[in-house]
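Contributing new records

If you add data, match the layout below exactly. Sequence lines come first and carry their own label; structure lines follow with theirs. Keep one chain per record. Anything else will be rejected by the validation script.
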Amino acid sequence: MKKPILIGCGIAFVFLLIIPFMIGVGIYNGLIQIDEKVNKEWAEIDNMLQRRADLIPNLIETVKGYAKHEKEIFTAVADARSRLIGAKGVAAKGEAAGALNGALSRLLAISERYPDLKANTTFLRLQDELAGTENRIAVARTRYNESVERYNTKIKRIPGVFFARLMGFEKRSYFEIKDESVREVPKVSFE
């Protein structure tokens, strides 16, 4: 009779050791999973911030180049038109008309070769790209902060609170913009 009691006590003792170990493993794996989710969400924010950093200067320079090119042609067309209106005599009007035709030909040639190369289209594209990037950053920031909330809650609640510090899990910070100047929408200048 003593032998079955000893076996029962031994089995109970093993279960008392195995059960906390298994619970600890489960908690650790859960913390690892949510920690990796937070890391993934932060990488997405970082990716979008880099996208913004790469996108804005490139698009602005592209738009500046197109706007400058179009500005030169529109200026040439406007100047040629003014010379035609102000020209006196047949020779002067012919010369001004030739200049206007040349400016218009360049404008038409550019429009024919590059139908999308129009300032309004380019400016709209820039606005769409900037708005899209800002929206992506906002979504990534929201997802990151939600993941941080889940993670911080998990390491503060029982039983996570007992294991988190022992396993090296510490509270994560939210992605907050504290500098008010950073909260402003990026200013785009075409000067």
